[in-house]
Design brief:
The protein is an alpha/beta fold. The chain has one domain: Luciferase-like domain (TIM Barrel, Alpha-Beta Barrel), CATH 3.20.20.30. It is built from eleven helices and 15 strands. The chain has a nine-stranded parallel β-sheet. β4, α3 and β5 form a beta-alpha-beta unit. α1 packs parallel to α11, α3 packs across α5 and α7 packs parallel to α10. Keywords: Monooxygenase, Oxidoreductase. This is Luciferase-like domain-containing protein. It comes from Teichococcus deserti.
C-alpha cells in the first residue's frame, strides 16, 4: 500500500501570499520524503483561493529537483481543460527529468466556473477526457500521436521524450464507462473520504464496484485510492482550530459546485451547508488529534475500505506553517510505522 502526501495549496487566510504557500508546499514534500512517504500529489484548480496551483505538472518539475526517491504526480490533471498534445509531451519530459518517478492522475473536473471561464462545455468533459487519454496513452507507449476524434484531430506525428510505458495511473471521475476503462488499464480510482468514518464511505466504494460489475469486471479489478484529511496534535486548542479548519474547507469545497462560487475576488467565502457536521462531532470522529485517534481512524478505514493507496491532506487547518510541519512530522514518525504493519490490500492487475 502506498501512502502519499496531498498538496492542495489553498489560501486559507487572506494574508497568506501564493509564494509563501508554494514555498511551504516544497518544504512539506521534502520532509515527507525524509519521513518515508511513497509519493506526493499536487492539485489543479483555477480562479479561487481553493488552490493557488493551476499547473500541478509545474510543481512536479520543481519538486523533482529537491527530491530523490519519492514519486510525484498531479492529482489531477483536469484533462478537459488542457490540450492532450501538451500534456503527453510534458509527462514524457517529466519521466525523463525524474528518472521515472511520475504518477499520473487524470480527472474530468467538477467545478462549473472553471469550465465556463475556459469556454469548454462541462457536459462533454467525459468524452473530452477519453479522447485525450487515448492520445496520451499512445504517445507515452509508442512515441507517436494520432487521433481522429470528435474533439481533437491530430495528424500522425512523433514525440521526442517518451518512456515507452504509461506511468502508474489514477483516475478521478464518476462516469461508469470511464471507471471501467480505468480498471481495465490497472488504474487506481480516487475517492475523497473527507471527514466521513469508514462505514459512511462504504457507499462510495460500492458505486465504484457497481460500475465495474456493470461493465463485466470482477470486484478484484478495483484498486481504491482514498483521499483523507488528517492532522496530528496533542494540544486541545490546536485540535479545535484544526477541526474548525476542516469544516471551513468542506464548506468552500461544496461551494465550488455552484455555477458562480461565492468569493471576494479570488478568495472563497465560507457558506454553511445543510447537514454539515458540528465541531464536536469532528473532534470525536475525524482523524484529527492524538496519534492514537488518527491511527485508529486510519486503521478502521483500511479494514473496511481496503485501499491500495492513501492520499493524505494536512494543509486544511489554517494553522501557521510550523504547526502543519509539526503535524506532518508526528504523523511520519508515529503513525506511518503503524500503517506500514497493516496487511497489504489486494492489488488488481490490468484486465483484458
Amino acid at each position: 500500500m502506498d501512502i502519499a502526501l496531498f498538496n492542495l495549496m489553498s489560501q486559507n487566510r487572506a494574508d497568506e501570499m501564493p509564494a509563501e504557500i508554494l514555498g511551504m508546499t516544497v518544504e512539506k514534500v521534502r520532509l515527507a520524503e525524509r519521513l518515508g512517504f511513497d509519493a506526493a500529489w499536487f492539485a489543479e484548480h483555477h480562479f479561487t483561493s481553493h488552490s493557488v496551483c493551476p499547473s500541478p505538472l509545474m510543481m512536479v518539475a520543481h519538486c523533482a529537483a529537491v527530491t530523490k526517491t519519492m514519486r510525484l504526480g498531479p492529482a489531477v490533471v483536469v484533462l478537459p481543460l488542457h490540450h492532450p498534445l501538451r500534456v503527453v509531451q510534458e509527462v514524457g519530459m517529466l519521466q525523463a527529468l525524474t528518472g521515472g518517478r511520475v504518477n499520473l492522475g487524470l480527472g474530468t473536473g467538477h467545478q462549473p466556473h472553471e469550465f465556463s471561464t475556459y469556454s469548454i462545455p462541462m457536459a462533454e468533459r467525459t468524452a473530452i477526457l477519453e479522447e485525450g487519454w487515448a492520445l496520451i496513452e499512445r504517445g507515452l507507449t509508442t512515441g507517436r500521436v494520432q487521433l481522429d476524434g470528435q474533439h481533437y484531430q491530430v495528424p500522425d506525428a512523433p514525440i521526442a521524450a517518451f518512456p515507452g510505458t504509461m506511468p502508474p495511473l489514477f483516475l478521478a471521475g464518476g462516469e461508469p464507462r470511464l471507471l471501467a476503462r480505468a480498471a481495465r488499464a490497472g488504474a487506481s480510482l480516487f475517492i475523497s473520504q473527507g471527514h466521513r468514518r469508514a462505514a459512511a464511505a462504504l457507499g462510495m466504494r460500492e458505486k465504484l464496484l457497481a460500475a465495474l460489475r456493470q461493465h463485466g469486471l470482477p470486484e478484484t479489478a478495483l484498486k481504491l485510492a482514498i483521499q483523507r484529511y488528517v492532522f496530528v496534535t496533542d494540544d486541545p486548542a490546536e485540535k479545535r482550530r484544526a477541526a474548525e479548519g476542516m469544516l471551513r474547507f468542506m464548506r468552500t469545497t461544496l461551494s465550488l459546485r455552484d455555477a458562480v462560487p461565492p468569493r471576494d475576488g479570488a478568495f472563497m467565502r465560507e457558506v454553511p451547508f445543510e447537514g454539515e457536521p458540528g465541531i464536536d462531532w469532528l473532534l470525536e470522529h475525524a482523524p484529527i488529534g492524538s496519534v492514537e485517534q488518527v491511527t485508529a481512524r486510519l486503521v478502521e478505514d483500511f479494514e473496511l475500505l481496503a485501499p491500495s493507496h492513501w492520499s493524505l491532506y494536512m494543509g486544511f487547518s489554517g494553522l501557521p506553517a510550523p504547526r502543519v510541519l509539526a503535524s506532518l512530522e508526528r504523523f511520519g514518525r508515529e503513525v506511518l510505522p503503524v500503517l506500514r504493519q497493516l496487511a497489504p490490500a489486494r492489488v488488481a492487475e490490468p484486465v483484458g
